[in-house]
Amino acid sequence: MTEDIFGSFMIGIQCEEGVIIATEVSKDHQRLFEIDDNLMCSIIGTNDPRDILDKARTEALNHRGINNKIPMNVESCVKTINNLLLKSNEDGLSHGASVLVGGIDEQNGSLFPSLYYIDPSGAYNQVQSKVIGGKGYEGAQSILQANYSTKLSLKECQDQIVSTLKYLNREVSFSNIQLGIALKSNGLCKINSKLELGNILSNLPCE
Length: 207
Prior knowledge:
It holds the Pfam family Proteasome. By secondary structure, this protein is α+β, with helices and mostly antiparallel strands.
């Protein structure tokens, strides 16, 4: 049985400095996960993604093992997660989950932020800003796109996420939000602790 994606949400933004993914936390569901040091993903539409994520982490680890410790890039991680989800479904044609995968790619010694969306049919594409789920998410997506610019700073992206959450009538607090940040500066992803998230939220402008 899958959870209702319209009752949950995920928001992702890519900028020059990195990638931010925010998602809702409930008592029974964590939705934002680290795959490797440079990779994170959020999944809604499936009740228990732990087996999929464990296999994706194994694939990422194996990739490092056979590629001189070079991490798996974001698109390869997207393909891995998508294939695992498809295999987990009986017909293998769709999987019903919505997924955001973000992280930092390394190419020729340079680092690049990257964000992808996998839709419930199994199709995927690279995105710069995305809202999935939550009542009114289509309007929220339109507002996010209208305010998006590749020149946004990481701090401005955080502001945009909070504004989008408020549009979706979500309470914004460290207790019900997960926030993951992938930084171009060091090539690493980190899912913020409640304390770190509280500090981030306390420094955002009040409306």
